[in-house]
Amino acid sequence: MESGSHDNLTTADELWHQYPTRMRSIFEALDLQHPGLSSVEEALVNRDTVQAARALLEYYRSVDGSWVVGTLDPRSIPESQELGDLLVRDSVKIGLIKDRIPISGNGGYQWDYTGPDGDDEFGYSLNGHKYLPALFITWQQTGQTEYVGQFDKVIKDWVIQHPLPDPGDSIYMVLNGEGPDYRDLGEVEWRTLETGNRLGVSWTQLFFGFQEVAAFSEATRLLMLCSIVDQADFLRQYHKKGHNWTTMEMNGLALAGLAFPEFESAGDWADYALSVMETEINRQVYPDGVQTELSTKTQWVALHRFESLAVNFQKAGREIPQAYLNRVEEMYNYLALAMRPDGHQPLNNDSDREDLRPRVLKAAEKFNRPDWQWIATNGEEGIMPDSLPSVVFPWAGIHIMRSGWDHQAYWSFFDTGVFGTGHQHADKLHLSISAYGHDLLVDGGRYTHKDYFSFDPTIWRGYFRSSFSHNVILVDGKGQNGGPTMTDGALVAGKDFAHQPAFDYAHGVHTAGFEGLEGSVRHSRKVLYLHNKYWVVIDHVIPDGNRELQVLWHYAPESEVVVEDTEVVSVNRNRPNLRIIPVGNIPWNITMISGQEQPFIQGWYSADYNVKKPNSTAIYKTTANEPVTFAWLLVPAEEQVPRLTAEIENRQGALDIAVVEPKGKTSISIPQVGIPVLNILESD
Known about the structure:
This protein is α+β, with helices and mostly antiparallel strands. Helices cover 34% and strands 21% of the residues. The chain has 20 helices and 25 strands. It is elongated, with a radius of gyration of 28 Å. It starts with 11 loop residues before the first helix and ends with a strand. Mean pLDDT is 95; it is low at 1-5.
């Protein structure tokens, strides 16, 4: 059993005396016939392992690893300086949380620490080491070797405390798919996702980046090489399939193989990773370019690593199939066409309100897409797309309805798709709306991953995942069940959706039932957007007995919202507003909730992870014991919203809605199947 303090472990001799098995494993993994390793082979023939180690380290000093260092993800200098200064004080910043890493009983870091809130996501990020490049960037800016010394300390401590898990370790139950999840085991250190991030985001690049710095000790360099081999072999055997994790795992495996060709398995690591990614980009990305988890955040996570693998292969002088690159472009197309007029992404499933413009603009240049440039700059640069601004992603079931490409444009996101393969929220038929540069109706966001699998609206994770934080319908106070995770077919134009010069239309159905309710309740929703005017939403519910229905409308935070008879309207000054007008003869009971925590959570919004704020939520409540249809007008305005009136008539085969506006009348006939018909009469 190898043991001993590593406080003063710096040289190859010291490593050999304390961890001989680790040292031997490096040479067992090497291809000693690789060009440049003859002196390593000679020392081993002479049974001088320490000299072989020094010869190997000298070889790496002679290698031009600049292309590997160049694969580091961009990070701002001020952000890096802040994080680097924290790290040299044995502290980290993960998300918005700054915290000191505890010291364990053996004198090293407590790597299973889950932060001040006991959030496993903190522990995962702590062990993923995506923060370590901050030390490299800060050292480059300052020249101060204390940042390199801290990198040396962190890597040495992690490697010594983390040999590959023993064969009997319970983690292999997870890896072999035998039932439990990492969260069930409290495992935050050896998840395959973090392994992929260590190899693909920090370790490999920084090994070469610090080659000329003496503070990066011989012992740590050798320990790092030993662990890189272990981790690459681990990923080669155990990795996800059909998941955004796969992209990060294979990105790390590929980079290790491309950057360290001296190891016998390196070619296999790289080739295998590319083969898996070629399969995955078709398996987990629908033909419309949307990743099957149906989260814009994980769309980027997967896309970023699909793309970085291709870039890394090209930097290493390896070719990538054109079909693979075409799929990467299709994924970017979703980001460009789905983003809001202000450049931010939708909050579907586990997403945050991130700015997509820098990513889309960079991709527009790379793929020669001036239409994306036009979208991302609100028409100031590039070439206007030759299609209507509204678009549907027919496999994902995502409908983007918008009035134009300018910053003030009306925009909505309507979800008629399946549950998704990961990071799911119970939000089918949800509708988000923005106009005049501001959000009006919102998706609640994700807020936290603590209690990851919950849909319980009495705890934070459950609330933000559940129907309670979305603009959908609750039945008897219960949210939606999840439903199918993938679709086997695309929506059909003219049947499931339509885009016309005057309007956009889509409909969907939720048939998977509601949590804990016996019986069958079916909810269908049709959305008609009249360009530059308003949205018409038609809900049809088929209950299986007497049921209470609650229709939820979540306003953007910081909106002042009032109830006017049966209508709900925001009355903000100096910013846009939205009026919700129920259409029909339903006896609604209206409740407004904001910032509620008991008896269940309601009226909260999260644009960023670990950040939440109250938002006004209108709850329209009624009962139904037979099929019922009701409609809504959602009317935005730059300032005060005018009062419109509307009538609804349900006749055989169609639903007719007449809307009286300040300057005319619009008659809308929506058939049960097919495209709506509009008749717009304008008055002087």
